[in-house]
Design brief:
Blueprint: E1 3-8, E2 24-25, H1 34-39, H2 46-53, E3 61-72, E4 75-86, H3 89-102, E5 103-104, E6 116-125, E7 128-131, E8 137-141, E9 144-148, H4 152-159, H5 161-171
Antiparallel strand pairs: 1-3, 2-5, 3-4, 4-6, 6-7, 6-8, 8-9
Length: 211
């Protein structure tokens, strides 16, 4: 028997029936074992999760969710759907970087809006949520919704916190120090949400972002 639980945070926007324009995979990691993608930080997210850990920024907000529970082969199965909102400078900077590095033909307005939403189907594996590999996710930009093909970096971005915490401990990586406000005495300069550059992230020029 399948039990369905639905909850919706008040004020969350309804899913827009936007028409996609053919977003496609730019960087194919389909032959890389899923665990290796995270442990090798192939998505350049260690500094992102470190910053969330020291409260540089709140994580993306879950604005709606659908949870499903059932059985398969006599074993309990959990899954569902969640929509995340990226709506501050820090979160937008990182979600744009991940999107541009791994997908092409992205919406033109992606770099100018102040809110990006991503809705995914998820399933629980080894006690951890992961984006479902057999269905497109949905990217909403400026009220339009586009089909977003599966890519492991999306799963790492949304559900990678436990893995990246384990990775930091395994490699003995120090947590960064919170950056003082730029206006404070002896501040090193730069925005407080900027943090160190993402050295492990793939380089991408503005000219090469879109086809």
């Amino acid at each position: 028997m399948l039990r369905r639980t639905w909850w919706l945070i008040p004020g969350a926007a309804l899913l827009a029936a936007g028409v996609g324009c053919g977003i496609a995979i730019r960087r194919d990691l389909s032959t890389v074992p899923p665990g290796q993608v995270g442990f090798d930080d192939m998505c350049g997210l260690q500094e992102y999760f470190d910053a969330l850990d020291i409260k540089t920024s709140p994580p993306p907000r879950i604005v709606s969710a659908l949870d499903l529970e059932g059985e398969s082969g006599g074993k309990p199965v959990r899954g569902g759907k969640e929509k995340f909102a990226f709506d501050n400078d820090f979160l937008l900077r990182h979600v744009r970087r991940v999107l541009h590095a791994n997908w092409r033909r992205l919406p033109d307005k992606l770099d100018s809006v102040d809110r990006v939403e991503i809705e995914v189907n998820w399933s629980e594996k080894a006690g951890t949520k992961r984006v479902a590999t057999d269905a497109d996710s949905e990217l909403t930009v400026a009220g339009e919704t586009f089909a977003l093909p599966y890519h492991p970096c999306l799963s790492e971005l949304l559900y990678g916190e436990p893995l990246y915490r384990q990775r930091r401990l395994m490699w003995g990586l120090p947590l960064p120090r919170p950056v003082p406000d730029a206006g404070a005495p002896n501040a090193p300069g730069g925005r407080a949400d900027a943090g160190p550059p993402d050295a492990s992230a793939p380089a991408m020029s503005d000219a090469g972002r879109r086809d």
